[in-house]
């Protein structure tokens, strides 16, 4: 297996909320990064997101190098074949098992067979994603938190066939990005989303059933339980479509106590996905 000390280029698949965040922290840590999405418009949007995040961090004196130097390590592409040079790939495409399995089958065919392929899935089975490749032992979950440059934690998810050395590599890479890690077995939602998703859905139901106003649901949880964001604002921040996809997987795997809230489904059907579309439970500029 390719050691972390031999990793120079990190491939990132998906340039959305998480993908461009992962590309940014990898480049900040000194890696060359190739970020791939399906349309050049999405790649450009990801690169713009990185540029403005780096500028914000530089304004706070939070970067060791100037933002331009970090940005120059990142290149965008729509061509998966460019990832042939990667020494490690982190996947962050949409939360859909078939799409991820297709991406992993393609990655296994274009990349060197001794490199680690990691998935940023929130809830899907790492084992099922890995079985689309010929190297399930080198596939691992690297579950970054949103926003990636700010959140300090990364959940390492161990699939049925993930090798011990791959797990060690995953912890070491995340640590090298300045993150702290914990480990979860490959069970639906892992540690974090298994607990977080029912909490968010219960917040949405409480609001929908008139237990409290939107603001008081969030305020009550912030002040009452010392979390930085209440369930409705956190759902908007994550993306309501991402919350719904995750909730549906948990519901399917773990039963009715994970049923998604009706109002969550209605908002996603209306295209109100939270911060990223400007409208969710709250309105954004
Ligand atoms: N949003 C969060 O808070 C959060 C947190 C942790 C993990 N995740 C997980 O990270 C992953 C990405 O979520 P996100 O919020 O960044 O979603 P997003 O919708 O912002 O971005 C997904 C991107 O993947 C791209 N894509 C789709 N198919 C592709 C393909 N075949 N090849 C390359 N790119 C492709 C899309 O064009 C889009 O740009 C999901 O698995 C999600 O569950 C999300």
TrEMBL record:
UniProt entry keywords in alphabetical sequence: NAD, Oxidoreductase
- What biological processes does GO assign it? fatty acid metabolic process
- Domain 3-hydroxyacyl-CoA dehydrogenase C-terminal, which positions? 189-284
Keyword Protein transport part of the UniProt annotation: no
| GO MF, any single term | oxidoreductase activity, acting on the CH-OH group of donors, NAD or NADP as acceptor
Among its keywords, does the record have Lyase? no
Q: Which residues bind NAD(+)?
A: 14-19, 37, 95, 100, 122, 146, 276
Annotated 3-hydroxyacyl-CoA dehydrogenase NAD binding domain residues: 9-181
Q: Where is this site: Important for catalytic activity?
A: 143
What the entry lists under PANTHER family is as follows: 3-HYDROXYACYL-COA DEHYDROGENASE FAMILY PROTEIN, 3-HYDROXYBUTYRYL-COA DEHYDROGENASE
Q: What is this protein called?
A: 3-hydroxyacyl-CoA dehydrogenase
Q: Which organism is it from?
A: Halorubrum cibi
Q: What is the lineage of its organism?
A: Archaea, Methanobacteriati, Methanobacteriota, Stenosarchaea group, Halobacteria
């Amino acid at each position: 297996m390719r050691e972390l000390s031999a990793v120079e280029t990190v491939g990132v698949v998906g340039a959305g909320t998480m993908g461009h965040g992962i590309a940014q922290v990898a480049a900040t840590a000194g890696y060359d990064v190739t970020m791939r999405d399906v349309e050049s418009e999405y790649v450009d949007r990801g690169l713009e997101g990185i540029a403005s995040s780096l500028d914000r961090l530089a304004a706070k004196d939070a970067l060791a190098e100037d933002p331009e130097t970090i940005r120059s390590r990142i290149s965008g592409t729509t061509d998966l074949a460019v990832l042939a040079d990667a020494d490690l790939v982190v996947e962050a495409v949409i939360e859909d098992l078939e799409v991820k399995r297709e991406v992993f089958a393609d990655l296994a065919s274009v990349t060197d067979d001794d490199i680690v392929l990691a998935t940023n899935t929130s809830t899907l089975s790492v084992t099922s994603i890995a079985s689309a490749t010929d190297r399930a032992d080198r596939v691992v979950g690297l579950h970054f938190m949103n926003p990636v440059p700010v959140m300090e934690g990364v959940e390492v998810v161990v699939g049925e066939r993930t090798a011990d050395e791959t797990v060690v590599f995953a912890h070491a890479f995340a640590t090298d990005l300045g993150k702290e890690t914990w480990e979860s077995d490959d069970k639906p939602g892992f540690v974090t989303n298994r607990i977080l998703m029912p909490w968010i859905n219960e917040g949405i139901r409480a609001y929908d059933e008139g237990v409290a106003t939107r603001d008081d649901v969030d305020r009550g949880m912030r002040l009452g339980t010392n979390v930085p964001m209440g369930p409705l604002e956190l759902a908007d921040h994550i993306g309501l479509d991402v919350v719904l996809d995750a909730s549906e997987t948990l519901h399917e795997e773990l039963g009715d106590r994970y049923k998604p809230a009706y109002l969550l489904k209605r908002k996603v059907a209306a295209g109100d996905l939270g911060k990223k579309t400007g409208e969710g439970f709250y309105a954004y500029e």
